[in-house]
Design brief:
By secondary structure, the protein is an alpha/beta fold. It is 38% helix and 20% strand.
């Protein structure tokens, strides 16, 4: 019933946009055919503590639609904060220039927020179960970390162990994959060389390539990237290459990933630049964003907003929401925070 109600509300929203000429006939037909999936942690899995934080977890495509796709269904996850003290108009930023790690810990006022940790953890369990994809640049910026659900969920070990137990249960009950696939986009030999991936691996400084972490790494690259890396990083049960030819072809790489490695869902954790590239290629299905209120004058320091740090602003979406080209599918408000799911229209001719 909850799933039906959310979908009916979503369809009514789409019809309103269609009647107002905000979306076209192809888009509304696509969204309706694509459907959604709604998971209730408490109702579906008996996870009461997690359900108090996230009553519903909404995915912007049905499992039936995803099963028919010839490329993985992709989703991203971000934390963003209002850069101005203006209630909820934005702009919303996903990083703070000049701060360590992009200033992400400061976006929530320097505190670990319960809803974001739950939102990010469940997203990785549900959308990143088959694979997590990162850009080579992001891999090297965070080379000592593996961004699985524990990176966020372990916060609950002490703050709320019942929620932590529920997250463990959710992973088990939704079909835990024994070996995590880590997809690394390294477009060419120049990428490997520029980032010194081989040298850093030889010094055992890249967690994803450390065999004791039991990660299946798949590099997406072109012929020059494969030639550059194959001797120092030879193919094995733990490491493979998808080579798209002389030139790098992202769509081709995604088709191979779906056909040969059976990746149905993919968590795109590659950073804003890569996500924008995937969006431009027509393969980004949704974005999940925890929106934080203005983090305070002390953190923002009244500096001019770096335009490259802006994730969105009220009014940019197809429906007037925050993300350009997107429609707000679902929103959960807890206090002054919001956990939002936005969907992007996909082209059935490309993905099916």
């Amino acid at each position: 019933m909850v799933c039906q109600n959310i979908f009916k509300k979503y369809v009514a929203h789409l019809e309103f946009l269609f009647e107002g000429n905000k979306i076209g006939l192809d888009q509304i037909d696509h969204f309706k055919k694509r459907g959604i999936e709604v998971i209730s942690p408490s109702r579906d899995f008996g996870l009461e503590s997690l359900g108090k934080i996230l009553p519903e977890i909404v995915i912007g495509a049905s499992s039936e639609y995803i099963s028919k796709m010839k490329v993985p269904y992709q989703a991203t996850s971000y934390l963003a904060a209002n850069a101005k003290n203006n209630n909820d108009f934005g702009p919303y930023i996903y990083k703070i220039s000049g701060r360590k790690a992009g200033g992400v810990p400061f976006l929530s006022g320097g505190k670990r927020r319960q809803i974001d940790n739950a939102f990010a953890s469940t997203h990785r369990i549900l959308m990143g179960r088959d694979a997590i994809m990162v850009s080579a640049d992001n891999l090297m910026l965070n080379k000592e970390n593996i961004w699985n659900w524990h990176f966020f969920g372990d916060f609950f070990r002490e703050s709320d162990p019942y929620v932590f137990e529920d997250l463990c249960e959710l992973e088990t009950k939704t079909g835990k994959t024994q070996t995590l696939k880590y997809i690394i986009v390294a477009r060419s030999g120049k990428t490997f060389k520029r980032l010194r991936i081989i040298e850093e691996h030889e010094k055992n400084r890249i967690a994803a390539l450390d065999k004791k972490n039991d990660i299946h790494v798949i590099f997406l690259t072109n012929e020059s990237g494969y030639v550059f890396a194959k001797n120092s990083l030879p193919e094995s049960a733990e490491l493979n290459y998808i080579v798209t030819g002389k030139d790098f072809d992202f769509r081709k790489a995604m088709r191979i990933l779906r056909d040969e490695y059976h990746v149905l869902k993919l968590l795109n954790d590659g950073g804003r630049q890569m996500s924008n590239g995937v969006l431009e290629s027509g393969l980004l299905g949704e974005e999940r964003v925890t929106i934080e209120p203005y983090p305070g004058d002390e953190i923002m320091q009244n500096k001019e907003i770096d335009q490259s740090s802006i994730l969105g602003k009220k009014g940019l979406g197809l429906d007037g929401s925050e993300l350009a080209g997107a429609v707000l599918l679902h929103s959960i408000e807890i206090g002054k925070e919001r956990a939002n799911v936005y969907t992007y229209p996909l082209s059935d001719e490309i993905v099916l």
